[in-house]
Predict the 3D structure of the following.
Amino acid sequence: MAAIYYVGDWAVMIGPIFAETPFNYAVKGTDIFNYGKWLKNALESSGDHEVHSVPAWEFYRLAPGEYEKIIDRHDILIFSDVEAKNFQLVPSFFDRRQFGTKPLTFPDRVRLTTEALKNGKHMMFLGGWLSFNGEMGKGGWGRTGLKEILPVECLEYEDLCESTEGWSATPLLKEHPILNGIDLSTLPPVLGYNKVKPRNNNGKNNVNTEVVAVWKDTDDPMIATGQFGKGRVLAYTSDPAPHWGCNFVYWDKYCQLWQNAVRWLLSRQH
């Protein structure tokens, strides 16, 4: 059984906000959405894997040393809609009570993530407004050391491609294990994705990347895979959840695609 740590695809809605007097603004509702439930259910559907799904703010608030324990306990880590600041910042940096008491430094989660993959952990990086470079560059993955282990290259500007009509996909490697039993021509419309570039695969430093599928009528990677040191990584450049994936999550091959992905990540190297 694989233990999987899945960060992201949760949201909190606060509102609407009512202005009842010039001095009184009241929030009339709070809702929490777990958009990650579809992917969690898909990964656990075979009974072979256990997924610990957490919101990005829980990952951000991890105490020093806790992320290292999580890495040790899990075989696969998933990041979806988790902007770079969650890796780069720690709440204590904003606690004025600690200013001047001691130098404030903490373990670098970007370094811990890249080292974990190269040492044999496996990962998925999935799309969304706060993934890859993201909306207005908020994702920021390509501006950090995460670019060392991504099987694609992030753009340096907003990378959102969105359409109310949606996109379909075209396989490039039809025989790839991730596409085993998957006919991408049956994929329902996907309403958006992060535009990225294929990674220059020079075969050096024990690095190997492939583009498995692209978005139809484009050269934009949909699924890309990589081998970095002992670890494997997959990039899916759209969201595994709504809104981009509001049709995708009801596809009859949704579970099989993600089961295939986990099986490939955990399989022995060629």
Remarks:
- The mean pLDDT is 94.
- The first helix runs from residue 37 to 44.
- The two ends are 22 Å apart (CA to CA).
